[in-house]
Design the sequence.
């Protein structure tokens, strides 16, 4: 009988220990989901500032500080594919959010973004272009052909708000500006923004430096 009681007692202890371990794992997972992205963003920005010893002083774009870790979103693109956080991670992303229809200014900006990427030569495959347009027919056939590879998102789609709201939140302490171009790092952090007058050369210089010092993306 004593052996049976000891067995039952040991079983109870083991069950309680397993329950405690499961509880600890849940707490660790919750911590990881909420705090690790922010920690990675902070470390990454410090690495960028240290890259070459002068990054913090020589960047041409306006730093979003602290870098803003994007959270999950999912929105359809013009090619019937889905743009989500997994598609953003792993590459440097140039994100353009024009105001209203794609007028001459918008078209000029798209051209300069394309040229900045092309100027990277063999490194350009590490960079992708995304544009969030006010409607799903922003570009005519000629422009579509000229900007092959551009990932286009319809801002009017309900799912787009999950991404647009995050972009707005990332800049809540910054001056409001129009026709902005953003840079997202391969960890999914919104880290820098540009006005159209900082294209294409300043954007190209920043990308060239980042691709040189980065081992990711």
Sequence:
């Amino acid at each position: 009988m004593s052996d049976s009681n000891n067995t039952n007692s040991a079983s109870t202890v083991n069950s309680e220990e397993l329950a405690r371990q499961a509880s600890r794992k849940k707490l660790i997972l919750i911590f990881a989901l909420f705090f690790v992205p922010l920690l990675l963003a902070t470390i990454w920005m410090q690495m960028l500032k240290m890259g070459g010893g002068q990054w913090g002083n020589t960047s041409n774009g306006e730093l979003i500080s602290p870098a803003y870790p994007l959270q999950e979103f999912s929105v359809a693109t013009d090619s019937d594919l889905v743009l989500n956080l997994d598609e953003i991670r792993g590459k440097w992303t140039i994100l353009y959010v024009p105001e209203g229809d794609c007028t001459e200014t918008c078209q000029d900006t798209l051209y300069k973004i394309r040229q900045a990427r092309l100027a990277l030569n063999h490194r350009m495959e590490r960079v992708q272009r995304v544009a969030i347009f006010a409607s799903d027919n922003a570009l005519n056939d000629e422009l579509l052909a000229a900007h092959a590879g551009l990932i286009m998102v319809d801002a009017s789609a309900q799912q787009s708000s999950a991404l647009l709201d995050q972009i707005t939140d990332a800049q809540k302490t910054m001056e409001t500006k129009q026709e902005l171009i953003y840079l997202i790092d391969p960890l999914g952090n919104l880290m820098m923004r540009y006005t159209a007058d900082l294209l294409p050369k300043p954007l190209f210089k920043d990308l060239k430096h980042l691709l040189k010092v980065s081992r990711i993306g």
